[in-house]
């Protein structure tokens, strides 16, 4: 996703929302956003609009292990991503797009090759039969929408934990679809600042078939339609080399302003969700000032 408990504090827009799971607020999804073996299609926006200029929105993805002190948790999360991806497809990354993404992200975090190999072997050994990907939708203070993505082997336990976390921290779970419609499911590719000038990255992204590019002092973030992600990654690798990270995100269509004490309540909610071992990522559609973010995000 990211950091101070979150990742990519200066990545594009923040995000929030979720599908149905157990009960009225979560929706089980196939790994990698694929259902029935087919990618979930996104409505692609007009590229002439998306590629014109850089968004001023902040995209804040809260993912486990963003800080060095959470390195072990990060490796655990990355290992599970790899294992589940291998279980739900072929163990060969060249023939399994989800596995290729998971391995690339693990390498970007300097995860040892032995750890990656062990994670794949776990899938071959049938050690992940009960794991499933689930998304929850909910609301935080001020009507902020949240998407909580989890990977769990016990949906009843996870559902109870997530529901309790929301209720104890100024939020509540919503019905399936109550928040997700406010977000777009997109591919995201991140390159370091040194990868090229803004114009060079923009040109390469357009040639590769990307939808949008945001560049700042920290680097370049390229967005693609969900179903185009792997093709754009390959095209950009030819032009720019390997990306710093790649992934699938929830990008809010609009941000909701939040300030004052509500910021502290929201950040406590997000951080508590993030501390749950089953939680893989939290997305929120809030617009918070840099001052409040620095004050409450720790």
Task: Give the gist of this structure.
With 298 residues, this protein is an alpha+beta fold.
Present the secondary structure layout.
Blueprint: E1 7-11, E2 26-28, E3 34-35, E4 38-39, H1 47-50, E5 59-63, H2 71-87, H3 97-108, H4 113-124, E6 132-139, E7 145-152, H5 155-168, E8 172-173, E9 183-192, H6 198-208, E10 212-216, E11 219-225, H7 229-240, E12 245-252, E13 256-257, H8 261-275, E14 279-284, E15 286-287, H9 290-296
Parallel strand pairs: 13-15
Antiparallel strand pairs: 1-5, 2-6, 3-4, 5-14, 6-7, 6-8, 7-14, 9-11, 9-12, 10-11
Distance N terminus to C terminus? 17 Å
Q: Stretches where pLDDT falls below 50 for ≥5 residues?
A: 1-66
Total strands: 15
Number of helices: 9
Instruction: Look at the structure and name the CATH superfamily of the largest domain.
Output: YebC, transcriptional regulation domain
Kindly name the structural category: alpha+beta
Percent helix among the residues? Answer: 25-40%
Q: Return the CATH architecture of the largest domain.
A: 2-Layer Sandwich
Give me the strand/helix succession.
Answer: EEEEHEHHHEEHEEHEEHEEHEEH
Rounded mean pLDDT is: 78
Q: Outline, from the CA principal axes? A: globular
Share of residues in strands: 25-35%
Number of domains as seen in the coordinates: 2
Main β sheet profile: 7 strands, antiparallel
What's the CATH topology label of the largest domain? Alpha-Beta Plaits
Cα Rg: 18 Å
CATH class of the largest domain: Alpha Beta
In words, what does this structure look like?
- This protein has helices at residues 47-50, 71-87, 97-108, 113-124, 155-168, 198-208, 229-240, 261-275, 290-296, and strands at 7-11, 26-28, 34-35, 38-39, 59-63, 132-139, 145-152, 172-173, 183-192, 212-216, 219-225, 245-252, 256-257, 279-284, 286-287.
- It folds into two domains: 7-44 and 57-181 and 254-296, Alpha-Beta Plaits, CATH 3.30.70; 183-252, YebC, transcriptional regulation domain (Alpha-Beta Plaits).
- The longest helix has 17 residues, at 71-87.
- It is α+β, with helices and mostly antiparallel strands.
- The strands form four sheets. Strands 1, 2, 5, 6, 7, 8 and 14 form a seven-stranded antiparallel beta sheet that branches. A four-stranded antiparallel beta sheet has the order 10-11-9-12. Strands 3-4 form a two-stranded antiparallel sheet.
- The chain contains nine helices and 15 strands.
């Amino acid at each position: 996703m990211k950091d101070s408990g979150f990742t990519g504090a200066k990545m594009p827009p923040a995000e929030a929302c979720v599908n149905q799971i157990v009960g009225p607020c979560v929706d089980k999804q196939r790994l990698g956003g694929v259902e029935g073996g087919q990618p979930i299609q996104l409505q692609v926006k007009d590229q002439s609009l998306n590629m014109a200029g850089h968004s001023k929105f902040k995209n804040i993805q809260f993912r486990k292990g963003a800080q060095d002190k959470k390195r072990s948790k990060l490796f655990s999360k990355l290992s599970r991503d790899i294992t589940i991806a291998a279980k739900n497809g072929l163990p060969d990354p060249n023939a399994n797009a989800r596995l290729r993404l998971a391995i690339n992200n693990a390498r970007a975090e300097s995860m040892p090759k032995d750890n990656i190999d062990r994670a794949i072997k776990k899938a071959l050994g049938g050690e992940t039969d009960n794991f499933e990907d689930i998304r929850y939708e909910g609301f935080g203070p001020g009507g902020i929408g949240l998407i909580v993505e989890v990977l769990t082997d016990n949906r009843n336990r996870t559902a109870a934990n997530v529901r309790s976390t929301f209720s104890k921290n100024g939020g509540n779970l919503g019905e399936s679809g109550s928040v997700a419609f406010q977000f777009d499911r997109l591919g995201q590719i991140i390159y370091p600042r040194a990868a090229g000038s803004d114009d060079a990255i923009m040109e390469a992204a357009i040639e590769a078939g990307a939808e949008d590019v945001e560049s700042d002092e920290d680097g370049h973030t390229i967005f693609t339609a969900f179903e185009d992600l792997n093709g754009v990654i390959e095209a950009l690798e030819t032009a720019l080399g390997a990306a710093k990270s790649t992934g699938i995100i929830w990008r809010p269509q609009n941000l909701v302003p939040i300030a004052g004490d509500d910021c502290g309540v929201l950040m406590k909610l997000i951080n508590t969700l993030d501390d749950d071992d089953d939680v893989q990522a939290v997305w929120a559609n809030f617009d918070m000032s840099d001052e409040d973010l620095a004050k409450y995000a720790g």
